[in-house]
Design a protein that fits this description.
Number of strands: 15
Helix content: 10-25%
Strand content: 25-35%
Low-confidence stretches: none
Distance between the termini: 23 Å
Structural class: alpha/beta
Radius of gyration: 19 Å
Largest sheet: 7 strands, mixed
CATH topology of the domain at 165-252: Nucleotidyltransferase, domain 5
Mean pLDDT: 88
């Protein structure tokens, strides 16, 4: 996670009571966004890379500092969403997300997981859900401190981006969201998920290997099937340079045309944060 700060100067003239705050949190730090509810426009974003073991207290302190820097005093804005990014995420048919079935599936895939809380993300009119595990103490403490109206998994934004993708000439597409040591990868074909998985990585060549393996495994055409990157990856990363030798269409995600943003959001590469801002 990189330090990013975007603050519209006009925000300090807007009553904080008319704003909505969302929080993204996980093992590498946290991020905050502020939306002007009246204008339905995103006005601020700030990331806080972790300097130590992340905690709910640290997230609360970062929230306080973020809001104080804008309004010059302690203010309290209701938290609309808490979004968790975690390596332990599965895409499951709805039939598996019921009672003991779900417990059995998660135990099978993550037998060593202890002191974890389950977070679910649902999609309207779809036959699947995402199920993820987050630190139990962090989860409980954040709910006590922030009292969010809803919670989501960050991977859900990746799915929502894929659901909006519509290109008859390119019915297949690969979506990749990069975090500091893992990457979520999703393959959609004609509006239907074919594969979702999370891969650990250390070097850019690891990302290249995983993406090319998807093309081989699912028999995707590198001349027509694009790769959409989002998350914490630089535009000149070796992975993008290397993949460009094999895959014709590689893109960094851009601002969502269905959303409204302060003009200052144009000064920073949007693929860092656009998925986080796509939650309604």
């Amino acid at each position: 996670m990189q330090p990013v700060e975007i603050i519209d100067k006009n925000l300090q003239n807007i009553s904080f009571e008319n704003c909505a705050l969302s929080v993204l949190t996980g093992p590498y730090g946290c991020c905050f966004s502020i939306q002007d509810k009246k204008e339905n426009k995103f006005m601020a974003f700030r990331s806080f890379p972790a300097t130590s073991e992340p905690s709910a207290k640290e997230t609360g302190n970062n929230k306080k500092a973020f809001l104080s820097d804008i309004w010059g005093k302690d203010v309290d804005i209701p938290v609309q969403h808490v979004v968790y990014y975690t390596r332990d995420v599965l895409m499951l048919p709805n039939a598996f997300v019921e009672g003991k079935k779900l417990d059995d599936v998660m135990q099978f895939h993550y037998p060593n997981a202890v002191d974890k809380s389950l977070v679910l993300s649902e999609f309207q009119n779809q036959e699947y859900k995402l199920a993820g595990l987050v630190d139990e103490r962090m989860h409980k403490s954040l709910h006590d401190i922030l009292k969010p109206a809803s919670e989501e998994l960050s991977a859900a934004a990746l799915v929502k981006s894929a659901l909006k993708y519509n290109n008859p000439k390119q019915p297949d597409a690969v979506f990749v969201q990069v975090w500091d040591s893992f990457a979520e990868m999703l393959v959609f074909s004609n509006g239907t998920p074919r594969l979702f998985n999370v891969y650990d990585w250390k070097k850019s060549n690891d990302l290249v290997y995983y993406v090319l393996n998807l093309y081989k495994q699912l028999v995707l055409d590198p001349k027509t099937c694009p790769v959409m990157f989002s998350g914490w990856i630089e535009k000149n990363d070796l992975a993008l340079i290397q993949l460009n030798k094999f895959v014709k269409h590689i893109y960094l995600e851009t601002l969502n045309p269905d959303k409204s943003y302060s003009y200052q959001f144009q000064d920073t590469w949007p693929h860092y944060f656009v998925n986080f801002l796509n939650f309604d």
